[in-house]
Design a protein that fits this description.
CATH topology of the largest domain in chain B: Thrombin, subunit H
Number of strands of chain B: 22
Shape of chain A: globular
Number of strands of chain A: 13
CATH architecture of the largest domain in chain A: Beta Barrel
Order of helices and strands of chain A: HEEEEEEEEEEEEHE
Structural class of chain A: mainly beta
Strand order of the largest sheet of chain A: 1-2-3-6-5-4
Largest sheet of chain B: 6 strands, antiparallel, barrel
Strand content of chain B: 35-45%
Largest sheet of chain A: 6 strands, antiparallel, barrel
Distance between the termini of chain B: 59 Å
Distance between the termini of chain A: 32 Å
CATH topology of the largest domain in chain A: Thrombin, subunit H
Oligomer: heterodimer
Number of domains of chain B: 2
Shape of chain B: elongated
CATH architecture of the largest domain in chain B: Beta Barrel
Radius of gyration of chain A: 16 Å
CATH class of the largest domain in chain B: Mainly Beta
CATH class of the largest domain in chain A: Mainly Beta
CATH superfamily of the largest domain in chain A: Trypsin-like serine proteases
């Protein structure tokens, strides 16, 4: 029987719960150990304060600090030096073809480290007519037939081999959207992300559900 | 890599191959404002899509897998089966490789495909949930087989193909036929409707031009007339010049049976008008004015404005 268990198990070891606030009681999302030494990536909309609490896979909670935040790309960088976690392997989703299997790890509606599966639809801007008001129309997303829910935000979307290809961000018209891994890597490295070239930003469109 | 990971990677590759194969015959259809819908290059120069996604008759265009956008003309549409036929220049892309929907069973892995922009074919993944025989959808059309799946028909996926793991196309997915499970218009129905739309420009449906409703017999009358069934269908209106009028049917006649089969639900008469009933005769057993009677009605074609 084909199973995702091995790949999911490996990935779950690098996924944390991120809660806003030092007391860790506010709502939160997921985070990914992107590099060794407690470098954790999550969604910008998960963390609006500087101090966060990072809950490790073993259940222990350690403090973290938001050191960089990009609301437009919906990414935040959290440093949690006491979080000794194996960093994930990541890959460019542009390498994958539509129909390729994907899986997400996150905490949808509070279910910690839940795995959901699906397939890749496309990597690139949302199709015309599916734009989100106020979001640059040429912003690239990993778009997936994948069930995501509040609590998945900031968690990984991985390919069949367990390589992280995106960071879960939101649901638009049922479609799961994740920030493509190369943008995440550039953000972590402190590189400027490409700005919208055309500046085409729809005023009307679908309302996103932030997850 | 573990054996599991290898097997998963192989499945992932197989699904992507299926998307690539079927996607080569899958086009984006621009026939409504804003979001595109999807169509399948069913025969050379002919794209089939769902009727509900075509909101204009002129200025329709189709984006091909290579990224070119070509003009398309609406060659026919049938609301009843939710199918529309578009003509595009011939020889521009491969024709869909079809599968046999009768071979699909619950549990078979399937994909729904779409093309909405220049990013390539899109896919949703799931399993066949239910299969069955011929059925009539709420829009009134006959669908030759029931094929339902747990696929998510995302905005724009309507009119796109249902694809098996080998990349064969089994029909067109419709977002408008069912709310619970995704419903596919099977290849046989697509072929049948396409033939009729190309030949005649419309789908011929049987029609007699009478309105009726169920009625129960009183036990005494039932016994006196020797009726086997407890009820029938009372005719409440007959349209002028309709086949029912030509056969002499009158308001107040009660239809007891059609071609020898008892009827007590108008759907049974509709069923008798399905398929190739047009041009054939129906023998109606009646109760008229307290006496047994019968009539032969020559089934006509439903007038265009009522299709």
């Amino acid at each position: 029987m084909i199973s995702l268990a091995a790949a999911a198990e490996r990935l779950r070891a690098s996924v944390v719960v991120v809660r806003a606030g030092a007391d860790g009681r506010a709502g939160g999302g997921a985070g990914i150990a992107w590099r060794a030494g407690g470098v954790v990536v999550t969604s910008a909309h998960v963390v609006d304060a500087r101090d966060v609490t990072v809950v490790l896979p073993d259940g222990g909670a350690v403090p973290g600090e938001v050191v960089r935040r990009d609301p437009r790309r919906d990414l935040a960088l959290v440093l949690a030096p006491r979080a000794a976690l194996p960093p994930v392997r990541h890959a460019d989703p542009a390498r994958l073809r539509p129909g390729s299997l994907l899986f997400a790890v996150g905490h949808p509606l509070g279910v910690v480290d839940a795995v959901t599966t699906g397939v890749l639809q496309a990597t690139g801007p949302l199709p015309p007519g599916l734009g989100v008001p106020g979001m640059p129309g040429d912003l690239a997303w990993l778009q997936a037939d994948l069930r995501l829910a509040p609590g998945n935000s900031g968690g990984p979307v991985a390919d069949a081999e367990g390589r992280v290809v995106g960071v879960s961000a939101m649901v638009v018209a049922g479609l799961g959207l994740a920030v493509p891994a190369p943008d995440v890597e550039a953000f972590v490295a402190g590189e400027a992300l490409p700005r919208s070239a055309s500046g085409r930003t729809p005023r009307r469109g679908r309302r996103p559900a932030y997850i | 890599m573990s054996a599991d990971t290898n097997a998963l990677a192989a499945l992932s590759d197989q699904l992507a191959d299926a998307v690539a194969q079927a996607g080569a015959a899958t086009v984006a259809v621009h026939g409504r404002p804003r979001l595109a819908s999807t169509g399948v290059h069913w025969r050379d120069g002919i794209v089939m899509t769902t009727e509900g996604t075509i909101r204009r008759e002129d200025g329709i265009t189709v984006t091909l897998p290579g990224g070119d956008t070509v003009p398309a003309t609406l060659a026919g549409r049938d609301r009843g089966t939710d199918l529309a036929v578009l003509r595009i220049p011939a020889g521009r892309l491969p024709v869909a490789t079809k599968g046999d929907p009768a071979a699909l069973k619950p549990g078979h892995l399937v994909l729904a495909l779409a093309r909405l922009d220049e990013l390539g074919a899109r896919a949703a993944f799931g399993a066949v949930s239910a299969v069955g025989g011929r059925w009539r959808c709420w829009k009134g059309g006959e669908i030759d087989r029931l094929v339902q799946s747990d696929l998510v028909i995302y905005p724009g996926f309507g009119g796109g193909p249902l694809v098996d793991a080998a990349g064969r196309i089994h029909g067109l997915n419709s977002g408008g036929l069912s709310r619970s499970l995704a419903t596919t218009i099977p290849a046989g129905t697509v072929d049948r409707v396409l033939d009729q739309l190309v030949e005649r420009g419309y789908v011929s449906r049987g029609w007699i031009g009478a309105a009726m409703q169920p009625v129960r017999f009183n036990p005494a009358a039932r016994q006196r007339l020797g009726l086997a069934s407890e009820g029938g269908l009372v005719i409440v209106a007959v349209e002028p010049d309709a086949p029912a009028a030509a056969a002499g049917l009158l308001v107040g006649d009660v239809i007891v049976s059609v071609n020898g089969s008892p009827v007590d639900d108008p759907a049974q008469v509709v069923e008798a008008l399905a398929g190739d009933a047009v041009g054939k005769s129906l023998r109606l057993d009646l109760v008229r004015g307290g006496q047994r009677a019968n009539a032969d009605v020559l089934v006509g074609e439903r007038p265009r404005e009522r299709r």
